């Protein structure tokens, strides 16, 4: 019975033109536990590491993500709970911070390779959400979605959807962009929050990852397809390179980007806040393409044809051996940890710890584009 339930969970890993897609939906009573279901999708093998929730701070409530039947969608959905009425309120469950609270799900470093966006890839995130009627956002920030960079300059999200109350009392949904720690925050769109209250909407966010990447997001009503937000930028930095800030802080290059969903809000306006329950459903993460049409040359096709994941030996094809004379391997921080200027059919990588690495092949003084390698 246990195995039967497992195979009925709404976690699907499919292949579409060679690229993996993961979808996540609630399965309701009798299915896999909510946290376990989310973890199986976003970070299998971890101890609920894909979930950030204040359960330890507010243990009498229990899990702060549960499942509920939604009559509009006619199926079970995820419900995220954020409380300010209990003492202490649901403070952020990490780093000992008390001025904010979060209940979010995410992909992150231990997640599978196909849930991480690296330079050259185009990734697409889809999800549905419902802002409850009367929702009270803070005057500081109430993030409901973030695209985060990992390693290097990774403090502020690259892209954020946040709900905000203005000084005049109006509320809106803001699409925010932070290029890096030195650049000013840009608010690309700010529709009135009332457009989203009490209804299910569907978001589709598409990102080509690169220093000259692309970004688009469309949010529309589930009921009739009415578009509520539509933004497209064909030339925008969607991952951060290594750089030195104006204050002298040295940042390594980001290794990948990842999504987050939930409620992450400031407690600075706690007197005007309330307990909230927000619904999400139909999560999807998909690699649309690994390389752009321009980059997808025969040379790059040859590069990616080594077996992946890799155990103790990286096996290279004859095509690679004929075209390249060396390789470099980098860890998630962008640090070069392996180099050789002579290559053979099998490269011994047994000294590498399990995880995600980037391999670049050397031809003269030129390096190929980075190719992801998972070390078992």
UniProtKB/TrEMBL annotation:
<feature type="domain" description="Secretion system C-terminal sorting">
    <location>
        <begin position="306"/>
        <end position="366"/>
    </location>
</feature>
<keyword id="KW-0732">Signal</keyword>
<dbReference type="Pfam" id="PF18962">
    <property type="entry name" value="Por_Secre_tail"/>
</dbReference>
<dbReference type="InterPro" id="IPR026444">
    <property type="entry name" value="Secre_tail"/>
</dbReference>
<feature type="signal peptide">
    <location>
        <begin position="1"/>
        <end position="20"/>
    </location>
</feature>
<protein>
    <submittedName>
        <fullName>Fibronectin type III domain protein</fullName>
    </submittedName>
</protein>
């Amino acid at each position: 019975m246990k195995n039967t339930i497992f195979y009925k969970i709404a976690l699907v890993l499919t292949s579409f033109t060679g690229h993996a897609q993961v979808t996540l939906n609630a399965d309701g009573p009798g299915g896999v536990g909510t946290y376990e279901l989310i973890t199986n999708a976003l970070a299998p093998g971890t101890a609920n590491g894909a979930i950030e929730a204040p359960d330890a701070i507010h243990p009498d409530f229990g899990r702060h993500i549960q499942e509920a039947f939604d009559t509009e969608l006619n199926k079970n959905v995820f419900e995220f709970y954020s409380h300010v009425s209990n003492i202490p309120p649901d403070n952020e469950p990490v780093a000992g911070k008390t001025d904010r609270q979060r209940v979010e799900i995410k992909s992150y470093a231990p997640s599978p390779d196909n849930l991480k966006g690296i330079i050259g890839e185009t990734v697409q995130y889809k999800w549905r959400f419902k802002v409850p009627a009367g929702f009270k956002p803070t005057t500081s920030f109430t993030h409901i979605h973030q695209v985060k960079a990992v390693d290097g300059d990774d403090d502020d999200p690259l892209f954020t959807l946040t709900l905000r109350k203005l000084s005049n009392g109006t509320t809106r949904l803001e699409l925010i962009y932070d290029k890096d720690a030195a650049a000013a925050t840009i608010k690309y769109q700010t529709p009135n929050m009332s457009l989203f209250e009490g209804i299910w909407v569907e978001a589709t966010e598409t990102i080509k990852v690169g220093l000259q990447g692309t970004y688009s997001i469309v949010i529309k009503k589930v009921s009739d397809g009415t578009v509520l937000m539509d933004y497209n930028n064909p030339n925008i930095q969607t991952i951060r390179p290594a750089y030195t800030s104006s204050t002298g802080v040295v940042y390594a290059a980001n290794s990948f980007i990842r999504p987050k969903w939930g409620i992450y809000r400031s407690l600075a306006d706690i007197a005007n806040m309330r307990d909230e329950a927000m619904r999400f459903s139909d999560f999807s993460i998909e690699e649309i393409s690994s390389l752009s049409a321009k980059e997808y040359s025969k040379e790059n096709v040859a590069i990616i044809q080594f077996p992946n994941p890799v155990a103790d030996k990286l096996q290279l094809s004859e095509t690679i051996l004929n075209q390249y004379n060396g390789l470099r391997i980098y860890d998630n921080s962008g640090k070069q940890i392996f180099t050789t200027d002579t290559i053979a059919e099998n490269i011994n990588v047994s000294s590498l710890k399990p995880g995600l690495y980037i391999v670049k092949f050397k031809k003269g003084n030129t390096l190929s584009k980075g190719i992801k390698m998972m070390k078992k």
